[in-house]
Specification:
four-stranded antiparallel β-sheet; 41% helix; 4 strands
Amino acid sequence: MALKKQQGVVLIVALVFLVALTAVAAALMQNTSVDIKMSGASQLKVVATQEAISSLDEVIFNQVTQTDGVNDFAYPLGVFPLNPAVSADNTTAQISVANSNNLVVDCPHSQSASSAQVLKCNVLRVQINRLYGRNNNSAVQINSGVAQEVLP
């Protein structure tokens, strides 16, 4: 008689363990899906950064190697800012003057033969903005400086 009274207790204990294991499994699955989303977002940022760096290289190459043989970085400062086209989607580029007060300045020092305070330079900022992510809500910005010798 005592054995029949205890048969229902085993069922209840098994159901309690099943509910606990289901809760743990659900929590682990939620953590995994969040981790997958985070790694996807990280991958998108890395790709966007690499595309922005490639666009920076493209802008500098296109400005220096014009088909007419003119280096656009050597233009007078009044011509800037320029907004050159880039081939990457959702990417914009701008070349602006980095010199204080828009003045032509002495060229930065180099390790080659000294020409300090002899040559003058346009110091320009090349800025690339790349939108990425769902609905292009995130952005990567790459900045580079270019010192271009100009005739005094």
